[in-house]
Design a protein that fits this description.
There is one protein chain. The protein has about 250 residues and is α/β, with parallel strands linked by helices. The protein has 2 domains: about 160 residues, Rossmann fold, CATH 3.40.50; about 70 residues, SIR2/SIRT2 'Small Domain' (2-Layer Sandwich), CATH 3.30.1600.10. Helix content is about 35%, strand content about 15%. A 6-stranded parallel β-sheet has the order 3-2-1-7-8-9, sandwiched between helices. The chain binds 2'-O-acetyl adenosine-5-diphosphoribose.
Amino acid sequence: MNAPAPSETLRELLQGQGPLLFLTGAGVSAESGLATFRGPGGHWEGRNPMELATPEAFASDPLTVWRFYAWRREQAAAAAPNPAHLAIASFQRAREDAALVTQNVDGLHERAGSRRVVRLHGSLWRLRCMRDGEETDDTRADLGPLPPRCACGALLRPGVVWFGEPLPEDALAEATSAARAARVVVVAGTSSLVYPAAGLPRIASDAGAFVVEVNPEPTPLSDLADERIEGPAGVVLPRLVEAAGIPTGRTA
Ligand code: OAD
């Protein structure tokens, strides 16, 4: 798919000094074959998020919730990072001051080589004990009988943020300070509907940042954005890092 080239203003900003922020959503993993949430073919089409992604749903039917998350773990494990993930990782390798804040829980940014990832919505690859709240890394392909249990006997839950739950305080604080500090914010692959993540570009814009939206579709952010690049993240993001004079993951 084709996409417009970045403007001259954006090219100059990307070549200049100063902190940058990438804010990503499910759309950046779409080209890895993972479903987004909203829209045709999205997770929430024909499924009720209130029955799959809330603490109440887990309390009343942990097996149904776990089937959804175990399936998503399988899908994510079978997927590979795409040029969008690789482009951001290249940016972060080249520029110490390039921050990445994601709503994604699939781990593809980390697998692409991004070392500094602020995860606002947790991770599919973390499990939390329902008794003491302790979280552990768990990348097993097969979790065994569902729902999985902790060594202490209590239920384990996915280490993700559900509707109605607060975001991890440290991640939100880090994301907010990255938004305040950023000179350029690239918002890619998110419908900009879910807060507080959706509020970060406004914080950045109010603090003087140039906001770029990368999305094939318009969103509620589009009016605020200083520049909209309509196209898939896997095409547009490599072009942005090339515009900055940085080799992308494809050539690095
Ligand atoms: P959404 O599914 O709401 O939005 C995905 C966005 O990606 C849409 O705006 C699409 O137009 C866009 N998109 C699709 N393909 C793309 C591509 N190849 N390149 C760029 N953009 C593309 O996903 P999120 O905004 O991430 O939370 O959703 C936010 C949160 O809502 C998720 O973290 C999840 C969900 O419910 C929880 O589960 C709590």
